[in-house]
Amino acid sequence: MSKSKESVLPSTIEITQAPYCALSFRRKVLIVLIVTLAGFLGPVSGNIYIPILPQLKNVFHVSTTAINGTVSVFMVVFAFAPLLWASWADFGGRKILYLISLIFFILANILLASVPVHIAALYVLRILQAFGASSVVSVGAGTIADIIEPKNRAKAISYFMLGPQLGPVLGPILSIIAGKGDWRWIFGFLALFGFAVYLIIIFLLPETLRYLVGDCSCYVGTSIWLKPKLFQNQIVDGYPKPVKPSLKNFWKILKYKPVLLCSINGGLLFATFYGLSVTFGHVLQNQYSFTNIQTSISYICPGIAMIVGSISGGWLSDKLRAKMIKQEPASYIPEKRFSLQVFGLLISMAGVIGYAWTVHKHVHVAVVFVFTFLAGFGLTWVFVANTTYLTECSTGQPATNVAIGNFMRNIAAAISSAIIDKLVGKMGFGWCLTGLGLLDLIGIGFVVVLLKWGPKWRREYEAN
Q1: Which of 138, 163, 345, 444 could form an S-S bond across to 40 if both were Cys, CB 3.0 to 4.6 Å?
Q2: What sections of the protein cross the membrane (predicted)?
Q3: 365-392 and 300-327 helices cross at what angle (nearest 10)?
Q4: Residue 2: which pLDDT band, with cuts at 50, 70 and 90?
């Protein structure tokens, strides 16, 4: 395939004749802030009680594996449900999916805060909670793709990803609410927070699906305050009709190698980090005698690392893209974003393996924090490029592509959190976490494959 043919792909063209989106910069910033806030709900729900898993184990009178299972079921549902939400968001609109899904989330948290103590009820309501919170990450990425042009998208994605990334930071800190044994308050807090986000979305978040509203010119000159509206009719022409959700369509996207390999790469990395995250609280309490509150505060360390990795990775990704386009405009391809990933994967691997052996050898806790920081930094450095690429590698279904990436990540996290305790018992802490860290070598292999064959696969997909 000649270079000239490569240059005509929709994902590589810079449209300069008209703005990509008619919204003002301030309105775009507001939308990014809203979807970032909404994207915080699911991860904070998944992480808010990880530091108090030892406490919940005693409250519910179950084993460590059983209470860790409540993390696993949350992650499994958080993996599958976005496939449903995102496909309909790409077809029928973004806003309606936010509003419907968050009703389930709010209801689940109200019940978790009030029903009698029973492990079966905890499992069922965690499933409902995950189902309700699961839409916002993939649908939020679709919203970003609607309003932010590719040249600035990685930066926007990096800020949007702060919502999911702050979950592992603020979730454990917010678990201080349960520091004196009042664990139900964490779900009461989530119910109130979810309701506040629901109101913000109703009154401030416009519909952005380009098939329905185009470049959002319909909002120019209007107030940021919106009348509550569940459905948005199509008011523009000229945009391709989205593919109606179906199993056939899912299968077609799953067979699309760039999406599949990019998603598996993220899944392996997430499995590694979740193995670290789930063990972190137990290590601090059992090995370093941290209290519940000290353990919760300790999650600030990987959290700050994730924020720094996300913002710096997004900024450099867009900077690299602009430089490449300036040097050779006709030859730029979205796969070039992967060139920075090897750096992030190596840092993450070093952090996890270092964490494994500092804990195994009972090294001072400060060294444990250093390696935990490196693991979190490398994780988000990679995720920003992954998520941005998933919105660019095909133009029609960005939310669905991101949902598949989310699916792979959370399935991997669910498996990791479910088996990590048994693996550590059989293999030892050092060798078990080292094995997880070495999974990043597979991710480096995927990066090389996508850089070499991704453009060819993408051309074939666009042609079909």
Answers
A1: 163
A2: 29-50, 70-89, 96-117, 123-145, 157-179, 185-205, 258-276, 296-317, 338-357, 363-384, 429-451
A3: 40
A4: very low
